[in-house]
């Protein structure tokens, strides 16, 4: 007789497909600008409420709010946002930090729970306020403490920080990118963004906070190549080809098949976040995407449209050169250089742009990618649902 207690039991669990049913963000604001007195938690509460109003059943089946943040105040900021919204107080809410890869991690968390049948629907995204960044100092017993100095930039590695601008310059040099190329990319980012703003699809997914009519604060319709040359410094990487400090928030509503009566916008095919050396963080947009494609047995030609984080103009340019891509398939609606780079919320901004680009073009597969401070390569592959 076989002793059943000694027999291993194997349970085959089929993963659920996970879909994006809706996505929203607020227009980005400059540091000290549009949202200079607005908590990013309040921006998030506003977006949560809009998602719940727009999607029947959402309030009754959303089990968790996962929001990324990089430079905020102490405490669970996602919980603050949840309590400021119409979500039930029983809904779990958590804040994650992966710097400008934060939204990727938030979505990965939500996607995993739904795929494992642990949740029916989750809201995930990011929020950031450079305007209200708190002033912090190290404790006097901390070996990093120096008198009369505050923490302006986090320490990302015990081996010492490399300035992200220096890392971006190294990336530009590695791929032989000129300042002229980066100026042209910056200029085109603003041009493409200007054309997208005000369109029906833009207005569907980018909502003004509490009736504010200012709109996108960063896009410059009048930007010229000559004006960029006048503003440039002697450095290869400077303000003319880098995103500045911004405020914003963006969220996506995730669910399983038939979680909602409405048709989903897209299916999440896969999410990849890998660790890389911190001093090559900007190159994470390439390394994360390459790892995701390899894992899924795909080539770069299988992807129709790409959205690459534009914290620096050299990143999409290096991506294009590495994969030998045509400029016309990358950041087709403009990128962070025009729309802003609110750190942890940037992934939501980029994903919304990618979804809109797929809808406008009728293309099937899209990939969004970023290199995150601290050394991470982040990528999400989605399939458009017509």
Automatic annotation (TrEMBL):
<keyword id="KW-0808">Transferase</keyword>
<comment type="similarity">
    <text>Belongs to the thiolase-like superfamily. Thiolase family.</text>
</comment>
<dbReference type="GO" id="GO:0003988">
    <property type="term" value="F:acetyl-CoA C-acyltransferase activity"/>
</dbReference>
<protein>
    <recommendedName>
        <fullName>Acetyl-CoA C-acyltransferase</fullName>
    </recommendedName>
</protein>
<feature type="domain" description="Thiolase C-terminal">
    <location>
        <begin position="263"/>
        <end position="383"/>
    </location>
</feature>
<dbReference type="Pfam" id="PF02803">
    <property type="entry name" value="Thiolase_C"/>
</dbReference>
<dbReference type="InterPro" id="IPR020613">
    <property type="entry name" value="Thiolase_CS"/>
</dbReference>
<dbReference type="InterPro" id="IPR020616">
    <property type="entry name" value="Thiolase_N"/>
</dbReference>
<dbReference type="InterPro" id="IPR016039">
    <property type="entry name" value="Thiolase-like"/>
</dbReference>
<dbReference type="InterPro" id="IPR002155">
    <property type="entry name" value="Thiolase"/>
</dbReference>
<dbReference type="InterPro" id="IPR020617">
    <property type="entry name" value="Thiolase_C"/>
</dbReference>
<keyword id="KW-0012">Acyltransferase</keyword>
<feature type="domain" description="Thiolase N-terminal">
    <location>
        <begin position="18"/>
        <end position="254"/>
    </location>
</feature>
<dbReference type="Pfam" id="PF00108">
    <property type="entry name" value="Thiolase_N"/>
</dbReference>
């Amino acid at each position: 007789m076989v002793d059943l207690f000694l027999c291993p039991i194997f349970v085959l669990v089929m993963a659920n497909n996970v879909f994006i049913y809706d996505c929203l963000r607020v227009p980005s604001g400059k540091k000290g600008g549009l949202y200079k007195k607005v908590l990013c938690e309040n921006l998030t509460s506003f977006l949560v409420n809009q998602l719940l109003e727009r999607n029947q059943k959402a309030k009754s089946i959303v089990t968790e709010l996962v929001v990324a943040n990089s430079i905020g105040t102490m405490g669970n900021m996602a919980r603050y946002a949840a309590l400021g919204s119409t979500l039930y107080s029983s809904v779990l809410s958590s804040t994650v930090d992966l710097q400008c890869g934060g939204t990727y991690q938030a979505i990965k968390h939500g996607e995993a729970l739904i795929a494992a049948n642990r949740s029916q629907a989750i809201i995930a995204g990011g929020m950031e306020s450079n305007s209200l960044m708190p002033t912090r100092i190290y404790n006097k017993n901390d070996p990093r403490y120096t008198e009369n100095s505050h923490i302006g930039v986090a320490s990302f590695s015990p081996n010492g920080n490399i300035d992200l601008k220096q890392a971006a310059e190294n990336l530009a040099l590695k791929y032989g990118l000129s300042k002229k190329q980066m100026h042209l990319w910056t200029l085109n980012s603003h041009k493409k963004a200007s054309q997208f703003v005000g369109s029906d699809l833009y207005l569907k997914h980018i909502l003004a906070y509490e009736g504010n009519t200012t709109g996108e604060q960063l896009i410059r319709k009048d930007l010229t190549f000559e004006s960029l040359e006048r503003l440039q410094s002697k450095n290869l990487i400077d303000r003319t080809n880098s995103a500045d400090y911004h405020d914003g928030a963006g969220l996506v509503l995730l669910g399983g098949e038939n979680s909602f009566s409405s048709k989903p916008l897209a299916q999440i095919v896969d999410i990849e976040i890998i660790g890389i050396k911190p001093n090559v963080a900007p190159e994470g947009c390439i390394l994360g995407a390459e790892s995701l494609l390899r894992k899924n047995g795909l080539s770069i030609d299988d992807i129709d449209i790409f959205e690459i984080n534009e914290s620096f103009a050299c990143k999409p340019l290096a991506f294009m050169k590495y994969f030998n891509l045509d400029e016309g398939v990358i950041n087709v609606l403009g990128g962070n250089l025009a729309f802003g780079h609110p750190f942890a919320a940037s992934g939501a901004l980029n994903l919304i742009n990618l979804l809109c680009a797929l809808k406008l073009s009728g293309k099937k597969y899209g990939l969004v990618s970023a290199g995150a401070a601290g050394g991470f390569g982040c990528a999400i592959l989605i399939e458009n649902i017509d």
